[in-house]
Amino acid sequence: MDIVSCSNNHQPDKMREQEGVIKYRLDHRQQSFNPASPLTGLNAWRTVFFRLGLIGQCVDRYDNIGFGNISQRLEPGSHQFIVSGTQTGHIEQLKPEHYCLVVKAEPEKNRIQSLGLCKPSSESLTHACIYARSPAIQAVIHVHSPEIWRQTQALNLPHTPPDIPYGTVEMAIAVKQLFQSGNMRHASIFTMLGHEDGVVSFGNTPQSAAWELIKQLSLAIGIEQQSNNE
Ligand SMILES: [Zn+2]
Q: From ligand 1's centre to the CA of 54, what distance in Å?
């Protein structure tokens, strides 16, 4: 079943950013692990976002490189989290082996230790930065939504600066600064202006992170439909 829309307004020239390439130093152990809590809810939401074209892989988007990823804290109080694997964007329904455990993340040293049958998403450092901000955050979702991203200003969304690319130490610092600035006090979503279409949401459950994304998507679509009618 292919219901992911590949129609887009992207400018291919801007897509040389090499989405999906791991930029951090990875110490990965190729070994299966048993998550403490089931991934059912997380995985169901990932499939929803896949069907909406917010997570995926598509020939005319980002040079056919997978985009979007999802994670969940291993258990309350833990620094470890489970994240979808790199280059799994083309799979509608992930299996347990497509997830990976981030055992230790040091965003400012650009280092990750992980365990699993696949390697962690290239954007795991950003996930790690967000978990480090509050123990209440239990889930993080990164999607690519052209509408939310384009409407960052109109929706008054917090954002990281346009000169900061994904998966870098600079992004880790930018995310930390975003939280320290107080701009995230009433928000659980932000856009990455230096990462085309990049949006990140988080919450105390996968569901709350997902609902915020869906809400902002509907608002962004509303703004664009209204301006099309004017
Ligand atoms: Zn991305």
A: 10
Give residue limits of the domains in the chain. 22-229
Cβ-proximal residues to 178 (8 Å cutoff; 6+ apart), any chain: 158, 159, 160, 184, 190
CB neighbour class for 63 (10 Å; exposed up to 12, middle 13-18, buried from 19): middle
* Distance in Å, CA 200 to ligand 1 centroid: 9
Record the pTM.
Answer: 0.90
Closest CA to 141 of 185, 189, 100, 184: 189
Angle of helix 169-180 versus helix 124-133 axis, rounded to 10: 30
CA distance 219 to 28: 40
Q: Ligand 1 mean position to 207 CA, how many Å?
A: 20
Q: Measuring CA to CA, how many Å separate 197 from each of 9, 93, 145, 159?
A: 11, 23, 5, 12
Pair of tokens at residue 90: 């083309």
Q: Which CATH class is domain 22-229?
A: alpha beta
| Tens digit of each residue's pLDDT (9 = 90 or more) over 19-31 | 566 778 999 999 9
